[in-house]
Design a protein that fits this description.
- This protein is an all-alpha fold.
- Helix content is 90%, strand content 0%.
- It has two helices and no strands.
- The chain has helices at residues 2-17, 20-57.
- The radius of gyration is 25 Å and the shape is rod-shaped.
- 0% of the residues are buried.
- The model has no long low-confidence stretch (mean pLDDT 82).
Amino acid sequence: MKRLADRAARGLARLRKDEDGMTAIEYALIAGAIATAIIAVLLILGEDLDALFEATSGAQ
């Protein structure tokens, strides 16, 4: 039983030292936050941007 506890402790220690997975998760969270912000801005300004493009396309 002690061997199993030692192996589990070593495995957990190895996981704590491995920071590559944490970095990938952090980048994924940042990318998700940026995507959410872009979608929110487009939803808020969507009609204004549509009106702007309609006005400029008719100005030829």
